[in-house]
Amino acid sequence: MSYIQFENLNKHFGKNHVLKDINLSVEKGQLVTLLGPSGCGKSTLLRCLAGLEVVTSGKVFLDGNDITEVSARDRGIGMVFQQYSLFPNLNVSQNVAFGLKMKKFPTTEINSKVKDILDLVGLSEKLDQYPSQLSGGQQQRVALARAIVTEPKVLLLDEPLSAIDALLRRNLQIEIRRIQRELNITTIFVTHDQDEAMVMSDMIHLFNSGFIEQSGTAIELYSRPRTKFAATFIGNYNILTAEEFGKGANEKLDCKDVAIRPEIIHILNKSEDGKDQYHLQGTIINSISHGNIIRYGIQCQDFRLNADMIFEGGLPREEGEKVFLSILKDEVINL
Known about the structure:
Elements: E1 4-13, E2 16-26, E3 31-35, H1 42-50, E4 57-62, E5 65-66, E6 77-80, H2 92-102, H3 107-120, H4 136-148, E7 154-158, H5 166-183, E8 186-191, H6 194-200, E9 203-208, E10 211-216, H7 218-223, H8 228-233, E11 238-241, H9 242-249, E12 257-260, E13 266-268, E14 277-290, E15 293-300, E16 303-310, E17 322-328, E18 333-334
Parallel strand pairs: 3-8, 3-9, 6-7, 7-8
Antiparallel strand pairs: 1-2, 1-4, 4-5, 9-10, 11-12, 12-18, 13-17, 14-15, 14-17, 15-16
């Protein structure tokens, strides 16, 4: 059995069926992300594991033990929420030490553990400051330190970076991953941000309306989505009906829809041969700069494609320019 196991888990809030027969496993030491839009059930599953929600049916196992009916305080789980909920009247050191004091650790051991964990999160020089004197990123690290100082069996992170600006958020993603690996602590991370999930995860479970739509590594989910929802949520796929794409490529496809990543579309000045490729013609209708990437909007008969090109200097292609497109058939995903 895996370190964490959900078996046929269901959760109802009145008539609202939030989690629907969830079967999910997490190996020890992994950082696993629950990804999906708001209201899909990912935070509810986290709260069921933490013991903050009572499951309607099904089982939750931790390290081989059935904890479905175990109280939250006896599960040995640490959690960091969107709101860090630091005690405003306690300084950094006192906030981090709070859980250890509740567990009645000796004072010398508390002081040693607090010092070590603040060194780990890079806040050893802030131990006497109060939450109001800290930046958002520093407050987040205090909350993280408070959650892991008690050495929980599992660390749960419920969108802890959602209120932080983009640059700091990227830095904290790297920091959280570093700390998780250094401590080898089994961690479940909840987010609606696909980029965040890609950067941080050993495994991603994509949620949709209470179900797990698809599970896999970041590369697996990005390169091979199995459903239209997964292709819509992960990456920036062009999603078209097989009929309209086949008409543009002058080929008949045996599927309902196709998904095409913008970066696999090659823009050419002249037509090329190749039976392993789809060939289309189109007109540049716009271009948007994304740093070193230029995304072109291209009108092809009755549909539009987005194509990403690396910017290598010079002038971008102009609106109204006629172009030829080449797409490897093996890279087009049939849905």
